[in-house]
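Weekly modeling sync, notes
Attendees: S.R. (lead), two postdocs, one rotation student

Agenda item 3: backlog of single-chain predictions. S.R. asked that every request posted to the team notebook include the full sequence so nobody has to chase files. The rotation student volunteered to paste the first one in as an example of the format we agreed on. Action items at the bottom.

Example entry:
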Amino acid sequence: MKDPWLIEVVPAQQTGRSSFTHSNIECRNPTHAKECYYTAAARLVNVNRWNEYAGKATASFQLFDAAGNAINRPVQKNDYLRINIPGPGNPDADGGDWVQVLQSGEKSGVEQQLTFITVRTCANPLTSNMGPTHFFDYPATSTFVIFRKQLTIMAAVFGRNEHSNLKSQNLFTRIRNWFIYIGAQLGLANLQWKALTHGLLHAKEH
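Predicted structure, as returned to the notebook:
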């Protein structure tokens, strides 16, 4: 990751595990490249449809506003995402894992464009639980980007500072989180994110 724009928006790796998953397409000319970029960027901020783009066997995502209301609009800073991954649900949160949007935005220049969303593990905003309700512990983040550089469009997910969340009082939750973390180390998370990055660039609209 050498591009200054990506360095600026992706949190620094300081502890734990990091990951990087991406998909690329090459466009025919500058006009085509911008069209592809805007299509992919619109998909990126439409979180509720990520499961459609990635495929039905992947995780589903539901967007909530800062007050905890389920919503259907482009993602914004301070929104929450509830993630329902395939497999055992989170016993601490009615099956879901929760993250909050730290930053989202766009950058644009003559030769390149960027749309990004950075999320961090968080407590379930619908309960009084104060600890992270996610299989990763603080301060894990994921940054989702659509990045155009000349004729190349990249969709990518950058995982940073990932640790298994073993703080729950529920033994089954701790065991579940540990196995998901091991699965991530073995590449299962990359399969999810690869399906998403590919879908953001290639999905056919209904």
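Discussion: group reviewed the output briefly. The beta strands are 17-26, 60-64, 80-84, 97-108, 112-121, 141-149, 152-162.
Action items: rotation student to repeat for the remaining queue; S.R. to check formatting next week.
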